[in-house]
Amino acid sequence: MNRLVETHWLANHLQDSNLVLIDASPSEEYGSTHLPRAVSASFPLEDYLSYGVNTSYGGGVDLFTDPDSSIPFQDGSPSYIGNILRSLGVNQDSVVVTYDNGANFLATRIFWTLTYHGHPNVFI
Questions:
Q1: Is 95 helix (H, G, I), strand (E, B) or coil?
Q2: DSSP count for the chain of H helices, then E strands
Q3: End-to-end distance of the chain based on CA atoms, in angstroms?
């Protein structure tokens, strides 16, 4: 099964009720532009700065990273990931398409996380 979707497929399915678009771009990029209905996998704009310092891991791994791990970029536990996915509107019936600005690995990292945790319908 091909896990890459074309832009014309996405354009034809943007209004599907079970489609969840996850934007894996850094917070600032998501705040300035993103696809309609896309949710951000990065820290919210009001939370990514702390005393003027960018606390983001660089984008789309922010919400999925275990805040208690001493190892950077480690996924949270299955229950932690499940809570994050539910907060983004993802359920077992969702068709998830993740994307980023094209200059990094963040969309594929989210794809891997969801696939690892058993989500059946994840695409890039």
A1: strand
A2: 4, 6
A3: 13
Instruction: Tell me the residue length of the chain.
Output: 124
pLDDT tens by residue, 24-49: 888 778 878 889 899 988 866 555 54
Structural contact between residues 42 and 24, judged by C-beta atoms closer than 8 angstroms: yes
Close Cβ partners of 97 (under 8 Å, ≥ 6 residues apart): 5, 10, 19, 20, 21, 22, 122, 123, 124
DSSP assignment string, 11-42: HHHTT-TTEEEEE-S-HHHHHH---TT-EESS
Query: What are the residues facing 40 on neighbouring strands?
Result: 23
Please give the model's pTM, rounded to 2 decimal places: 0.85
Whole-angstrom Cα distance, residue 118 to residue 1?
16
In angstroms, what CA-CA distances link 28 with 54, 55, 105? Answer: 10, 12, 17
Mean pLDDT across the chain, nearest whole number?
83
